[in-house]
Design goal:
The complex is a heterodimer of chains A (about 325) and B (about 270).
Chain A (H helix, E strand, L loop, with lengths): L2 H7 L1 H13 L3 H27 L15 E3 L5 E3 L4 H8 L1 H34 L2 H16 L2 H12 L4 H8 L13 H25 L3 H9 L4 H12 L1 H16 L3 H6 L7 H10 L4 H31 L1
Antiparallel strand pairs in A: 1-2
Helix pairs in contact in A: 3-15, 4-15, 5-9, 5-12, 6-9, 7-9, 9-12, 10-11, 14-15
Chain B lengths: L4 H24 L15 H8 L1 H34 L6 H13 L2 H19 L7 H26 L2 H9 L4 H30 L2 H6 L7 H9 L5 H32 L1
Helix pairs in contact in B: 1-11, 2-11, 3-6, 3-8, 3-10, 4-6, 6-8, 7-8
Classes of the chains: A mainly alpha (about 325), B mainly alpha (about 270).
Amino acid sequence: MSAGNALTRSAPWRGTAWVMGKLGLSGRTLVIAIPMLWLGVFFLAPFFVLGRISLAEALIARPPYTPLFERGPDGSLQIIASLENYRFLMTDALYRNAYLSSIRVAFVSTIFALLIGYPIAYYIARAPEPKRSILLLMVILPFWTSFLLRVYAWMGFLRSNGVINNTLISLGIIDSPIQMMQTDFAVYIGIVYTYLPFMILPLYANLTKLDGALLEAASDLGASPTVTFFTVTLPLSLPGIVAGSMLVFIPAIGEYVIPALLGGPNTLMIGRVLWDEFFSSRDWPVASAVAIVMLVLVVAPIMWLQSVQNRREER
Amino acid sequence: MRGWFLPMAVVFGFVFLYAPIISLVVFSFNESRLVTVWGGFSTRWYGELLRDRQILGSAWISLQVAFASATLATIIGTLGAFVLTRFSTFAGRLLLTGMITAPLVMPEVITGLSLLLLFVSMELSLGWPAGRGLTTIIIAHTTFCAAFVAVIAQSRLRSMDESLEEAARDLGAGPVRVFFDITLPVITPALVAGWLLAFTLSLDDLVIASFVSGPGASTLPMVIFSKVRLGVSPDINALATIIIGFVVIAVLIAGWLMRRALRQGK
């Protein structure tokens, strides 16, 4: 007897089906309801809570924010909500700078990831078969090890008495260590390193689809390899470039761990500001307001861009 | 891109990818406490790691969380993907599509903060969850991992031959039998891949777990982060080497199994 048959004949199954029939629920409704309810409660509802707490004020209490409703002196229910936190975000330069610098850091890192990732993807896409699979595996392998430990590896590399500085000093290239840790440069490296596979894989997928006949045609017509690359390969791989860049840019912009471990006190990133607001200042309402602004300014445009891109691909 | 430039760029890229990992492994066998100065070969940091109750305890918590949330995420993600690919019209289809793709682009700090605020408000108004710990981390991880499982399951469900399901229906099988006897066996490899991805993502998460965990439920990344924040420490190198060893062995076994399956298929 098959698994499905055994299941539908079992007593618990038939009992459940009977109860559901009595309640007027179909199996179809139940199948739709499970993911819908789970995501509705644990993914969608939190944003309403977030929005509501962003309108509250911080309190030293449990929970550390003012309630939304309060009984007035005459017993009527009053709604307490203020846009004070948002006004604060607009007036304090820290937050504006953090948003702008997150975008800058994510953008610069994406460019670096593209510059390092493109040649690798191109090379792998052109490699003969056994070599191609091995190289592809080598690109993905670091991704399977812990993200935190990969960032940690760079701490040992970039420190003043780290591997790079020690090597350069022993080779006599420099006399005193270069400050690399706790700089924006270290943050770029951390982001590029962490998300490089996300850049390479879409590029590779795109470049393997490239029609070799086009390249031959270009060279038959007298184009040099460099000209062929810039006039044929590069424009045709644009969808791969866009997809890979999105996959690096999106997680980079809200990044907390990398700026916290590799960046200096001056490396402002919005994910880090939110974290500090929550864990250090314990100001839940301001942290919520930072998150809401981030949703509107960063996440919403990204989701819109992606849906536009998806629609274009479906066509 | 011919001549010397391309190979040079590729070599540079792979050196960039592997040099930090190799140095991490090499210095895990360093006698000296100074992580980056060689003081002779030693395995003492492995010994210290095995005596570190905090790390071992948190590793156990992480494994429990990863196992539970990967399993739950596979169930919810598969159901979501199934609903979206097989039921063409139903109320809330657009909403479900949005809720299943949005976690993929949501910054971790926002997911973590908003879930924590939800748990706190739920505890205040419903009395559940009482405090935060293992359960809340599992719920949080399930939610964001389900999105990744759904993407994988969706692409497999779209590409599979639907005439198989139709044939079963024509032969009189009910929807439940069709799902368990036809659809599920066909998409199982994709679900295994999805489960593994969810397991890895859960094991790797620091930010969301930090927000939603409570006292006594620190995951391995949380313990590593609190140690690493204070500077490099050699027992973390030893831990990293062990993890890398596991991954390399798992990949080699997977590769060997795949080659064997391919050969048998011929």
